[in-house]
Amino acid sequence: MRRRHSRHATIGKLLSLLALVGLAASCNSALAHPPDEATSTPEVAEVPSQRLSGGERFSNNPALAVGGDGTVWTTWIRHHRDQGDEVVVQRGDDDPVRLTQQLGQYLRPVIAAVDEQAWCVWTATERDRVSSIWLARFRDGRWSAAERLAPDETRAHQNPEIAVRGDGQLAVVYQVHTGANYDLHAKIGERHVVVHEGPTNDWDPTVVYDSAGTLHIAWSAFDRGDYDILWKRGDAAPRRISHRDMYDLHPWLTASPAGPVWIAWDVAVVPGHANSGETTITGANHGAKTPSNYGSGEKHGVEVRVLDGETVRTPGSPLDEIVPFAKLEPQRGAQDESPTGYSAGHGSLPKVAVGPEGHAWVIYRALRRTQHGGWLPRYGTFYHWDLVARPFDGEKWGAPVRFADSDGYLEEGDVAVSPGGALVIFGGEQRAGSGRRMRQHLAAERDESNHHHDFAGRVGCNGEVYLAKLPSPNRPAPTAAKLPVASALREASSRLRGRGDRYSVDHSGKTYHLWWGDTHRHSNVSRCSVGIEPSPDDLYRYGDDVCNYDFFALSDHGVHLRNTDADDGNYYWWLNLKLADLYHVPGSMSVLYNFEWTMDFPNGHRNVIYPARPTVLLDREMEASRDLVKGWKLLDEAKARAITIAHTSADPGQGTDWSDHDERYQRVMEIFQSARGSYEHEGCPRQFHRTQNKQGFYWKCLERGYHIGVICSSDHGYGVAYACVYAEENSREAIWQAMYDRRCYGSTTYGLVLDVRSDDHWMGEAWQAAEAPQLEINVEGAAPLRSVEIIGRSQVLHAEGSVEEPLRKRRHQIRWSDPDWNQQTGEQWYYVRVIQTDDEIAWSSPVWITPRREP
What CATH topology corresponds to 509-750? Predict the structure, then answer.
């Protein structure tokens, strides 16, 4: 192969350079964050790094392996703006080689090597097909053409991890969707085997061969409302090694030269996960004491164990020493974090590296939130993740070091051990310093009272891949046998209700099923969360396991996906699309394409939902979509099939006055969200306190004669509220069409069934009638019912049950006709509101009926 000739150091020279340089004395070096970027600078030493990627493309998802002869193999994703991805691999100092034959949607390549052989595997997603895993092999001096790892597998499969034994036996472990959940499969040598199967999901596999050639596999398994780490050694049965009262996520295995295997994982405590928020009617809502907005009250840390034969040992006190295991709150002013300036966010994606002499390091992402005098800064991105490492000295985890150039997104790095020490590969985006750059390029003044004012902020320069070498501590390596045995595992009862029997109805010769989902949920890509919310991958996981979604639409802000001032292109919009395809499993989880189109009053905040591609990205920084009318025109010109869903409609800053309307796109609105509360009408049950915009309530759009149905949503934090739709099947097209047809309702809780029809008509329909139509209402509660109300003409027209005299039963049916029908001359709207005794609510979409008077 042709050698690289560029301004970048070769890997061989790089390793020599890094060994000589060692650790920088402090973060006040040229690579440290500029002092104007934070109220305090992290006082940590710095590990130098060298860029591997060429700088001409956005590069990320790096992985690393070292062959038995010491050859360093690296791989990563290289993105071509508006075209697609390619998987590249680099052997030593050779030029990177492209493994994929065409640009596509690729994720997370991993690599393994032994002697003169190497293997690279990755996930491919497509918009109209389930995900699959691909493999390329290096042998006899060349790479093979990429081929399917499991060519006969027709089900969705993804997220491979790889290991190779000294004799060349390859093991690839990955997730396979059975149609109901993800099981764990593996290809070991030429055999395809099932590692673990069951009624719930298995996530995040990791695999390693120990020094004796025994295969170890670990993963995060969802069970009884909790996530636990399971470990399988050789042919032994899987064994739980984590406590049951916390979420245990993102495990990573590594082998030590002395024999024991080390494992690290994320730990999260999420109070009130999947409740409906703080607002109440009578105080009966159990979620009232648990804030749901922006992840308040969450705790996070990193655990590490040593698997010494059948004995599980604990090195030091990981939860106390690696990441501060304390409540994480949205940053509003100065806040002490440890190490100074750092916190965990929702996850750290930890790895463990054990060097050739047995020295152990834990490597993880640490959230750094910079400030400029308030919660959100005037300029820049105000948060990023550094890659940080801590050594284990035999008794405790030592002081952290930071990898230079690692400031970027929450993206996992990778580690491998060479004869000269432990190597670390990672992505960086130059997010530090964005405030200074924004002060130089800011085009217009921003409204400081608007918490979304940083939409034009520069995210970074470009996604790049870097390599670094950890130093070898000047002390004896720890001995596993001297470490204490891990404490007995804690048990916990189930905290969540599972999925019940699906509600179905026969109507007009068709069978409709009730599907539950969410069309408004932000990840840590959205900057208004200050980095503390889950990653998109974790949100898809929680949506399936914790929230019981049948469909989902991730809704990060369009301007944050487009990165208007950065030269990293539209990468995060591309990532949003390919992750939607990754987690889309027809019949099980329908993932719609979505983003939030964010405008100030009176245009308001909208979620833009597409059933298919092509999609059109809208944001207020583009003249063509600066307001509602312009954006709708752009959708019309693109012939895009889209729904633009208003939320927080009565908010004075991000709400609407309903003055603009286009029935082609404005089909439903969010009547309630768990992050805040209800926007139904002034004085409504569970009304949010920030509703000073009285023209933005839901009743106001109905009074204007608009035909707009309702759903509920989550928005931020860990609460949940549901969009509930009636469709013949669980597919993107059917779910989207049900919302478009307004054959839907909103619920603050899972399992509250609301079925509203009239003769041959569903909720959401409009028609004419000579006689007073009869509404047929069927309610099945997730808890005892308090009341069922029929609302029309901006008042309660009929109610059964009340706070004083609740219904106190789980099922209730009503047949009702408007007694004042003959007095009405114009179109009438009616909808149903159901309230349970625990303050959970459901609202149906209305029916619109115009009296047809005979001459």
Answer: TIM Barrel (3.20.20)
